[in-house]
Write the structure tokens for this entry.
Amino acid sequence: MSRCKVDYKEREINHLNMKEINIKRVGITFLIALALWFTPAPEGVTPEAWHLFAIFASTILGIILKAAPMGTMCMMAIGFTALTQVLAPGNPGASIVKALSGFGDKVIWLIGISFFIARGFIKTGLGNRIAFLFIKVFGKSSLGLAYGLGLADMCLAPAIPSNTARGGGIIYPIMKSMAMSFGSVPDDPKTHRKLGSFLTLNSYYMNLITSSMFLTGTASNPMCQKFAANLGVDITWMSWAAAGFIPGLAAFFIVPLVMYKIYPPELKKTGDAPKMASEKLKEMGPIKVNEWLMLLAFFVLLALWIFGGALSIDATTTAFIGLTLLLLTSVLTWEDVKAEKGAWDTIVWFAVLVMMASSLNELGFIGWFSDLVKVQIGGLSWMVAFPVIVLVYFFSHYIFASATAHVAAMYAALLSVGISLGIPGMLLAMMLGFMGSIYGVLTHYGHGPAPVYFGSGYVELKAWWLRGLEIGILLLVIYMAVGGLWMKVIGYY
């Protein structure tokens, strides 16, 4: 290759890299940070807490504005936190140690290792096999096809915490293939409503519902667990599943039926779908050794997540055991682990956001904010304050392009406010946790899998937002009514 071509290639790579950084938005983020930093701290807030809040708020703003990738924003946050010594004034060594403390949190490694385990489902093909098996059984009608894809997502949700990988990497390609096989083609708008539009929205909604049902259903759930623990509310894998399974199951059965009425597919019968699924399974051949080993690791994980508490084995230890099994049996290699960019990316930004949010709580900022809000709405009974807080949290998601950023920005603060008003801690912690998944229905950028499904082209923007609002209200009713009553039955309040 000539030197000219090399130089051109380098310039092209540099140009692509610069696309990740929006200088104008980075500048806006930095100016906001400076403005907050030099604004006098409110009464009752220490200068250190206020300065950390300035870094935290500007980091969240940068993520919302997409000024730079989330990992880049978080690296900047660590740098400024350590440089300004807000966590350990006058002690540079202690400051950097505290700035990096999030990387030692067990919750961070639970979610990171679960990403590696998820890779096993994709690499072995077990995830696809499970999806085709459900389509083979339920796929004779468009409604049955929707339920079949949803059931596959539900089976994978406990062990695949990246709902983007689960929905975009496993379910979406199969869903799109099924739609196209029945003549519903993305490039032809006249055929969208035949089947593709219905399956696209249903698959996306099902993904969010199953994400809410398990602590390991999506990446932001363990973050909720961590913030709740900071406020004295202990959530385990099993306690989350016990609270989330019943309202999730109700939503799982109701949402496709409602969608079938308000946004029906033109094609009602899909009798060839089971045959297509059978052909795909035939192409895959009999279950391979690696798939059996993956299945074994999956059941070991589930068993320990459910019963490990009695054996003093926590969820993170269980995740390490599962990963070790996959590595020792060569289902995964160390190269697979190193190559799992999504996991390492999540570990980085997850650790930084948790560090800053936890430190704000330790420095008294969350308590101060809670008291401030309590003064404004202190006259409300907890029975009134509870739905108000949940609704504020749910509909504020319109301004967030990241579920994780939303959780980091508002979960701990609203939970603290609610507890100070007398709302039972476990009830509010779990309900806000559920919202962290289902508020993704509102927009085409509201959760990780949204851009994947919206990018198919099957659903127009107006229809996506209208159906999202309708299903969002339906899910609020289901989770507040069914979920609230169920948590009363099982003694959560």
Summary: The radius of gyration is 23 Å. The chain is about 75% helix and 0% strand. Confidence is low (pLDDT under 50) at residues 1-6, 8-17.
